Amino acid sequence: MAIARQWLDRYGIVTREFWKRERPIVSWRSIYLELKKLEFRGEVRRGYFARGLGGAQFATPAAVELLRAIAAEEPEQEPFVVIAGSDPANVYTLAIDPTLRDPMSRPRGGGSLLVTRGGKVAIAVEGRGRRLTVADWMTREEVEQAKELLSIHLRGEKGARYLMLPDIRPT
Fold first, then answer.
1. pTM of the model
2. Which of 25, 100, 114, 144 could share a disulfide with 52, CB 3.0–4.6 Å?
């Protein structure tokens, strides 16, 4: 029960992929049974919430409402979010269907970052800002906004100076 609640608090949605990634000392079956108990009590919902994640998915009511609100928003209105490539909350590292995986979602090396917007990877950052890969859907203004956020995030890092290069633009 403790693991099920911890994952629900951390991720909002729990599937077997989290068990495969974290490999706790208890079996997936035990966690699944606890999640079902939470569902029967009305504390979580079972359904299909995230495309690409297989099997049963359990989500907190707050996560479901947040997903609905995000789905109703215009992508241009959503803020950019910077997340470390190695962050345990980085759901882009989950083993999902390769055809659904964003090719930019797995930057390599230490200090790798992802800049996301609306659940899509906008910029993959490697080497603490030394190498950037920009998504083809990004406009020049969006790239500038994301670079500003990255420069704030990387303040004091040597790699932050690379973000100021004028030739970084969508490819």
1. 0.52
2. 100
Instruction: Report yes or no: 134 and 171 within 8 Å, Cβ to Cβ.
Output: yes
CB atoms within 10 A of CB 148: 12
User: Are residues 118 and 72 in contact, defined by beta-carbon separation less than 8 angstroms?
Assistant: no
3-state secondary structure of 60: coil
Nearest to 115 by CA among 83, 160, 92, 156: 83
Give whole-number Cα distances, 6 to 35, 85, 97, 124, in Å: 11, 21, 25, 28
How many angstroms separate the CA atoms of 7 and 102, rounded? Answer: 23
Distance CA 126, CA 136 (A): 18
CA distance 69 to 90: 20
DSSP assignment of 7-55: HHHHHSEE-HHHHHHH--SS-HHHHHHHHHHHHHHTSSEEE--STT--S
Pairing outcome for strands 120-126 and 113-117: antiparallel
Average pLDDT over residues 74-78: 69
